[in-house]
What does this fold into?
Amino acid sequence: MRVRRLTEPADAKTAYPCTTPFLFWSDALPLSRAWFAENLGHHVEGLHVEDDTGEVVGHLYWAPSERALTPFRIEERVAYIYCEWVARPRRGKGCMHLLFEAFGDGLREDGYKGALVLGTDIEDSMHASHFLARGFRTLRKAPGGTLLYFPVTQKRVRVEALQPRIPPPEGSPVEILVIGSRLCPVAASVVLSVRKAARKLTGKVTVTELPDGEEALARYGVADGVFVNGRPAFLGPATFDQVREAIEREIARVAVRPPTSRAQRRVDPPTGRR
It folds into this structure.
């Protein structure tokens, strides 16, 4: 086993090995790999662990806080972990230990203060307890999970959650705003489904896609996401049928609801969660 740091756009051709077991994400893989190639060294850094045949069996993707696509304002020289993964047959055999050791060594060499991550409550997906076992410290609960910090050269870190500012539109057609959502193939698969559903619902839906980055963060207070009539939607894996049905429910809701002021519009967002 060896750990390799990704340095060239060509390295993106092996990015996201985590998609292998999930066939319905495969169509989105080119979209995410293209994003990875475009943003490597700026919005994303990567480490791969390879077996003796060169197959990628694990990854850790992150970014410096100054350029991380995250809904938090974090002080400089802190690493923000987007995601990590090891192939199921390789778990418990030291792969993640190798990855995190190489990650920590790199942070020390480059003078980073520490690393932040948003741990989840999903056992098989970046569960907070996995990070606590490695020496991370709980900071506080945050939207989507638990914010944790791993100190390297500094014991504490300043971090502040951004406030979302997605203005809800009025009337029809239904407006869908897509911000980025290519960093992860799960999100990218939703983007492809939104595009496909919009084509089938011509005249009833408009889709606006904006690139992720500093401008979107400053304007909207969010790093990425899909918003249906101003509300976050599809907060996890979603099939095309789930995306289409959620949009159709919103179309029906708007059709029967009389126009109201934005302050009066308080309904639960459609989601693609299973």
